[in-house]
Amino acid sequence: MPNQKILYVTTELFPYQEDSNMATMVSKMALKMHQDGNDVRVFMPRFGQISERKFQLHEVIRLSGMNIIINDLDQPLIIKVASLPGERLQVYFIDNEEYFKRKQFYVDDAGQPFTDNDERAIFFARGVIETIKKLNWVPDVIHLNGWMASFIPVYLKTFYKNDSYFNDSKIVLSVYNEENLALNESVEEKMKFDNITGLKAFKKPSFQNFVIESMDMVDVVLKGDEFLQEELDSAFSATKTTKSEYIEAEAINTLY
């Protein structure tokens, strides 16, 4: 079914990250749908490990310049764009000096989780939502991949609940066996600033618990890995959201 507008939001994408099932899956799904004649866009964080020179990233001035307020602090949103090597498929990068310049993904040199991983996820989720609106491009399908992307349905169902922009968009969440790190307990206070309260994930904030929280806020939950870790598998079984077992990337159009 071509001519759909499909948005992929991911924390990992080949070739910017390698040796990861998620990075490979998202790349294959996006390329498959792009080559089938759909209007496909991909959004991801501009982690410091991604070489701007090698992958020819450049800033999109007309999309940059917004500020995202995180816990009463203004953080400038920078949007960069590149095409997947050899393909006319645009990848948008959410960037901010404070959150994404560092060379590591989620832990410091001592192996400890960054204390602002929660803020980075909030900034990323809101940055994606605001940039899509600024593009004036309404996706038919929003396919979420990675723990940071799981903050998007949380925000759409709460902070943006009176905004009709995404009313007709169907949201798919792929669940993967990601490293599960604790998040700062102050995430509850920071999201309370955006009038988000009462999340189960606040009791024990972690990457995994926010993914589990978002399972009940989307249209379809899909196994991104064929076999999920125990807690994820239990949550997958328990959610009342429409579920799909693992699908090969080349067959993803059957889900849409």
UniProtKB/TrEMBL annotation:
<dbReference type="InterPro" id="IPR013534">
    <property type="entry name" value="Starch_synth_cat_dom"/>
</dbReference>
<keyword id="KW-0808">Transferase</keyword>
<dbReference type="GO" id="GO:0009011">
    <property type="term" value="F:alpha-1,4-glucan glucosyltransferase (ADP-glucose donor) activity"/>
</dbReference>
<keyword id="KW-0328">Glycosyltransferase</keyword>
<dbReference type="Pfam" id="PF08323">
    <property type="entry name" value="Glyco_transf_5"/>
</dbReference>
<feature type="domain" description="Starch synthase catalytic">
    <location>
        <begin position="5"/>
        <end position="200"/>
    </location>
</feature>
<protein>
    <recommendedName>
        <fullName>starch synthase</fullName>
        <ecNumber>2.4.1.21</ecNumber>
    </recommendedName>
</protein>
